[in-house]
């Protein structure tokens, strides 16, 4: 009777998973995996097979984006999700500056203007499009000519 070590089982599963991804006919691929599991390696293998146009490798993690850009060596445009949103908004509207703390500024503006709106991020995340908070926030962002993480995603969602 042959026993297989845990490491060997993991290696087999990893190879089967990679083969399934590489042999998939899907045009777009999403790789969801934890740290150190080979996401960048997998992206590179996929992209080496797919040299037929513009490729984008996207992540939510800035450090991973930087590492992937080096590892993928020009096989794809590598961006964080929010940087990608910013890029598309810039292409559509001209200069776009991302300000992570914009919600606090807009909330303070709301107090000064005696509207007393809050929970802006929640409003964007729940797609409460008709809310007074979203409208106020977008107008203030336009006034300052900046976007935050949440409203950049929302603005791109609305544009597309």
Describe the structure.
This protein is mainly alpha-helical and 160 residues long. The chain is built from eight helices and four strands. The chain has a two-stranded parallel sheet. Helix 3 links the parallel strand 1 and strand 2. Helix 2 packs across helix 3, helix 4 crosses helix 8 and helix 5 packs across helix 7. The protein starts with 5 loop residues before the first helix and ends with a helix. The model has no long low-confidence stretch (mean pLDDT 87).
Topology summary:
Blueprint: H1 6-23, H2 39-49, E1 56-59, H3 62-72, E2 77-80, H4 81-93, E3 97-98, H5 102-112, H6 120-125, H7 132-144, E4 146-147, H8 149-159
Parallel strand pairs: 1-2, 3-4
Mean pLDDT: 87
The end-to-end distance, rounded to whole angstroms, is: 58 Å
Could you tell me the radius of gyration in angstroms? 21 Å
State the shape: elongated
Helix content: 55-70%
Low-confidence stretches: none
- The structure class reads mainly alpha
Number of helices: 8
Topology pattern, helix = H, strand = E: HHEHEHEHHHEH
The proportion of strand residues reads 5-15%
Identify the strand order in the major beta sheet: 1-2
Quick overview of this protein structure:
The chain is mostly helical and 160 residues long. Helix content is 59%, strand content 8%.
Features:
160 residues, single chain, two-stranded parallel sheet, mainly alpha
């Amino acid at each position: 009777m042959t026993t297989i070590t845990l490491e060997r089982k993991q290696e087999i599963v990893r190879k089967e998973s990679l083969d399934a991804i590489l042999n998939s006919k899907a045009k777009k691929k999403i790789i969801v995996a934890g740290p150190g599991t080979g996401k960048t390696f997998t992206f590179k293998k996929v992209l080496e097979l797919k040299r037929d146009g513009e490729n984008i490798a996207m992540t939510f993690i800035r450090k991973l984006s930087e590492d992937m850009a080096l590892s993928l060596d020009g096989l794809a445009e590598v961006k964080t999700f929010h940087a990608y949103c910013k890029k598309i908004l810039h292409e559509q509207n001209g200069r776009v500056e991302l300000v992570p703390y914009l919600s606090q500024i807009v909330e303070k503006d709301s107090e000064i203007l005696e509207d007393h709106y809050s929970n802006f991020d929640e409003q964007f995340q729940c797609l409460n499009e008709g809310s007074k908070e979203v409208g106020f926030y977008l107008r203030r962002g336009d006034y300052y000519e900046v976007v935050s993480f949440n409203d950049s995603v929302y603005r791109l969602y609305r544009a597309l």
